[in-house]
Design a protein that fits this description.
The chain has 121 residues and is an alpha+beta fold. The protein has four helices and four strands, in the order βαβββααα. Helices cover 40% and strands 25% of the residues. The protein has a four-stranded antiparallel beta sheet. The model has no long low-confidence stretch (mean pLDDT 92).
Length: 121
């Protein structure tokens, strides 16, 4: 019996740009069952694309201890291996970046406030 190999669609990773924000907002609202963005949206910094469509993004947020962390938000249907690979890629990017949003909680809080204000209806 022959095994038919289905080609896997390649996931592309890219930095998040301002032009991506409305699509990222849609993913966030849907994944969190919300009507409007809040501070949990954070500041997106990396995204994953399949067939030129964004399927997930990583965003900088402040945790309850006041530390900078990142969260992954994704569309339904993303495979678990794709999500793990993206999380690993985001973690590497997060650790290597030294800009203020990645290292200064006060700077990030200000950036999140501005982002939420801009994206809120």
């Amino acid at each position: 019996m022959e095994t038919i190999i289905q080609p896997q669609e390649q996931i592309q990773y890219a930095e998040a740009y301002i032009s991506d924000m409305l699509e990222l907002k849609t993913i966030f609202l849907y994944s969190q069952s919300l009507q409007t963005v809040n501070a949990d949206f954070g500041v997106p910094f990396l995204l994953a694309k399949k067939k030129n469509k964004i399927i997930a993004f990583a965003s900088l947020v402040i945790n309850k201890n006041g530390e900078i962390i990142f969260r992954i938000y994704s569309k339904n249907g993303i495979e678990e291996t794709e999500k793990r690979n993206f999380t690993s890629r985001a973690e590497t990017y997060f650790k290597q970046n030294t800009t203020p949003n990645f290292r200064n909680p006060e700077q990030l809080k200000s950036s999140i406030k501005n982002m939420v204000s801009w994206l809120a209806p």
